Amino acid sequence: MSAPAASLPGLVVFTPLPPTRSGIADYAAELLPELARALPVVAVVAARADVVALPGVEVIAVPDYEARADLRHWPHLHQVGNSLDHAHAFAAALRRPGIVTLHDPVLHHLVEALTLGRGNPAGYEAALVAEHGEAGRRVARLRQRGIFDPALRFLMPLHRQVLDRAHGVILHSRFAAGRVHRPGGQASGPPLRVVPHHLSPAVAALDGLRQAEARERLGLPPAGPVLLSLGHATPAKRIGVVLEAVARLADEFPDLLHVVAGAPDPALDLAGQIERLGLGARVRVTGWLTEAQFLLHARAADLLVNLRWPIAGESSGALARALGMGLPAVVDDAGPAAEYPDAAVAKLPPGPEPATRLAGLLAALLRDPAALAARGVAARAHLRRHCSLAGSAAAYLAALKAWGGGGTRSGPTTGSPYSGLRSYLNAKPL
């Protein structure tokens, strides 16, 4: 047992786990067995149907946790993300504070799903008022009248209710830390630590696989550049901008293929965009992929495009995997992805006419295969040196030693978010 873990009885982690289709579930499934090498780990999933086997980790459901008095005084870690897959971890972070890994600095989508999505506008208003006072109340009431700008989700991220009760907060980037840092300094909020998103150990299984073999397995053309969009295809990933750029590259790169390797969000109208741009023969959409298929596409491609706008502050596990496999990438020169070294990723500056500028950047990269390959080598070296799973686990153990995460600390009681949100959490304190 490592020195930071020697004085700890164990660790309780509220988290989703695979087969839940959540990047955070995958992250936890990789991290927790590594932590379990240093101390006992109990993972708590939402329901008994979600209980799975995880090496070295005891996995139980929320009802079984509630019957385990022996776990109440263990340090607690909550893996919090911005979807209903993480609702039980979000609720536990409010009822039984501990250390929070805030994978998504914007939690507005989760809060609205737990309130408006369940017919509870009063709970939504309570959350907004708790964090934003009368301005929040006005937003909630205007929304009930059908008046709402989606940008408000990012301007009112609704994470303070969790953070103000936390013993400490782990984030994956300096950008994310800046989103939650209060102007008054850390004395006015929980302590923060940046632990970069680790590289999945699963990528090592493909180290000896050649690109040509990966393409053959996937039925991709043996020649010609393959451009990749990886993961759940949402409007925020600027897939429309990528498609427009691909259309602009048709004359210079007639054999360019754009593979959208993931399930498209219906809000994207991906099929409609492909048809309008006349890209039917130039774009392949795979739908949801298993991890093995996901990694195989990364091996088969020449270049990943991983854009995001608006930027909420989450770090991309798909990007980390691809870079760690040696796949060069284009990212926005803003947000967490911009923190990767310039030698490892090409960065698209913000500005007007993004499709035109992206097409120019892609063309410059594809014209010089040797320089593109060098970027891939640099990306692989950086991820494997600085983002190892062992390094991530060591950083978590150091945070546990510094912050504890045990005891029964309670957050603010007068006007606290917890009291205002009880109506949709619908549970007693843990």
Key structural traits:
430 residues, Rossmann fold, 7-stranded parallel sheet, 6-stranded parallel sheet, 13 strands
Explain this structure to me?
The protein is α/β, with parallel strands linked by helices. It has two domains: 3-107 and 159-198 and 389-422, 3-Layer(aba) Sandwich (Rossmann fold); 201-386, Glycogen Phosphorylase B (Rossmann fold). Helix content is 40%, strand content 13%. The chain is built from 17 helices and 13 strands. The chain has helices at residues 23-35, 62-66, 87-95, 108-114, 121-144, 152-155, 160-163, 174-180, 211-218, 239-248, 270-276, 291-300, 317-324, 354-366, 369-386, 389-403, 417-425; strands spanning 11-14, 41-45, 58-61, 76-80, 99-102, 168-171, 192-194, 226-230, 257-261, 283-285, 303-306, 329-332, 345-348. The protein has a seven-stranded parallel sheet with strand order 3-2-1-4-5-6-7, with helices on both faces. The chain has a six-stranded parallel sheet with strand order 10-9-8-11-12-13, sandwiched between helices. Helix 5 (121-144) crosses helix 17 (417-425). The radius of gyration is 22 Å and the shape is globular. The model is unreliable at 407-420 and 426-430 (pLDDT under 50). Pfam families: Glycos_transf_1. Keywords: Glycosyltransferase, Transferase. Residues 212-375 form the Glycosyl transferase family domain. This is Glycosyltransferase.
